[in-house]
Amino acid sequence: MSDLLPSADVVDCPPGQAVAPVIESYPARKAALPGGLVVRRVLPRAGRRMVGPWCFLDHYGPLSFDAGKPMDIGPHPHIGLQTVTWLIEGEALHHDSLGHERLIRPGQLNLMTAGSGISHAEETPSRSSGRLHGVQLWVALPEARRHGPPAFDHYAELPIAAIGSVRAAVLMGDLAGARSPATAHSPMVGAEVVAGSDGEARVPLDPRFEHALVLIDGRAALGERVLEPATLYYLGTGRDALNLSARAGSRLVLLGGEPFGEHILMWWNFVARTPDEIAQARRDWEQESRRFGSVPAYAGARIPAPPLSPRVRAPE
Ligand code: MN
Fold first, then answer.
1. CA separation (Å) from 189 to 156, 209, 275?
2. Cα separation of 167 and 161, whole Å?
3. Are 240 and 204 in contact (CB under 8 A)?
4. CB distance 198 to 183 below 8 Å
5. Which residues surround ligand 1, an ion (CB under 5 A)?
6. 1: pLDDT strictly greater than 80
7. Mind giving me the DSSP string for 124-187?
8. Ligand 1 center to residue 73 CA distance, Å?
9. Average pLDDT taken over every residue of the chain
10. Cα 117 to averaged position of ligand 1 atoms, centre (Å)
11. Do residues 244 and 251 lie in contact, with contact meaning Cβ atoms separated by under 8 Å?
12. Given pLDDT bands bounded at 50, 70 and 90, which one contains residue 143?
């Protein structure tokens, strides 16, 4: 997806501090879009800009609709990141400048690696379930990969780890012996954790990673700490497990990774290192340069870049 809450300012995301186990909570920033879709910006937040290489998490929906397209995001560019698309309900149709066309459903993963530049469009297909609920995640690419060629992969099935009362679908990296087939370019984990029954689970973690947890739906606690929805819980490094308790049907997202050692800047749909790189990518998009290709399979107009301010600031 495109950044649905764009700002003119460049957002500064310096390398995170690796800290011992903590529980820090950051409420999401919420916005209702025209058409009724509610978007919760969980990452980046003021005070917590990254979790390992994870630099962006929007949780959108759930939404019911009778007609039309609640998701209709025309062609837009990305650089320097991977988009990790995960649906909880509904369907989305992806088209990109490499010529991929792919319908995604719940339980499947779309992983788009922007590298030096790609453009894509996403829309609700003409035949749909009338529901939409999902998360949009971005992973910052390390220096060694961010200038490389774009790529797109679809994974129709992901490994599931059964851990106590929960089942974890492993989107990126590995968890409890289950390894995602998706290509990661730095050490990380990303998983959707769903409770099959009321109960508890001891989820094993890599203590070198920093981690974060987001309650998407239901009721859950981390140890004694009851989790609020629409909140990022940053858990620090140095944990070898999470002691989760959850009611049946509860759903959480677990993110983690080695603290990302590079200082990134984010603006609109770009992850870069300098304001000049961002300005160049913006010009390349506005001038329809070959860098980003085109998405002829999408019937509507491309999304123009928002204004770019010279200001660099912390996330809101
Ligand atoms: Mn996008």
1. 19, 9, 29
2. 6
3. yes
4. no
5. 1-2
6. no
7. --SS--SEEEEEEEEEEPPHHHHTS--EEEEES---EEEETTEEEEEEESEETTEE--S--SSS
8. 8
9. 95
10. 11
11. no
12. very high
